[in-house]
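ingest -> validate -> predict -> emit
validate: passed (alphabet ok, no gaps, 239 aa)
predict: started
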Amino acid sequence: MRIDTVATLEDIKARHIDNRTVIVIDVLRASSTIVTALESGFTSVIPVKTRNEALAMRSLNSIVAGEWHGKKLDGFDYNNSPSILKKKTTHTGKELILTTTNGTRAIEKAASANKLLIGCFLNASSCIKEAINQNRNLTLYCAGTRGEFALEDGLAAGLMVSIIRTRVPSTETCDFSKAMETCYLKLAKRLPDILFSTITGKRLFENLNSEDIKYCGQVDISNIVPILIENRIVSIHPS
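emit:
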């Protein structure tokens, strides 16, 4: 098995997707929101690109959530906030329609992968367990922020590289994967506080979303593995 890590939304290439397992990582916050939504009782998450698409799909059986540059969109039920979704108890059996600045676009760009999973700190070990089960080369696809690398995504990728290299020592890695693993191992004890110092974390803090930052920095609190199947994200539990 080989692991390649892609730094931003724009850096993905066909060679990173074709006949591979891809894990989309958007720690702050799309990946964390998707994991939490499925953990909280939503039957599925439907990722869409735009506000208008999301509102057009709204129904009695759906909730619409999303953001643009960290701020809630007009007419939406919720922001892209995992900590808020976790507190709600009225979503069992409903679909979540989600649009975000980077995460849902990354999902769309990698949708042709053999298997597309959604990962973050919250479900890192379960996500990697499923990736190992797939027995294909793996791409860790960091969504980034506004066209730039996001440290929190890279750290989550580094955690996943560390997990897989422990379980499958023969795994090959690209240099960026090695760098992210080293970075994670150096900073792991400072999670989730380190997320407040990242570019995205600072923006969220300024927008009064500190609870999300704390929540998203927790490691392995969920065994949910979101997987894209026919334009819907549903949950599986690795065997």
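The two ends are 19 Å apart (CA to CA).
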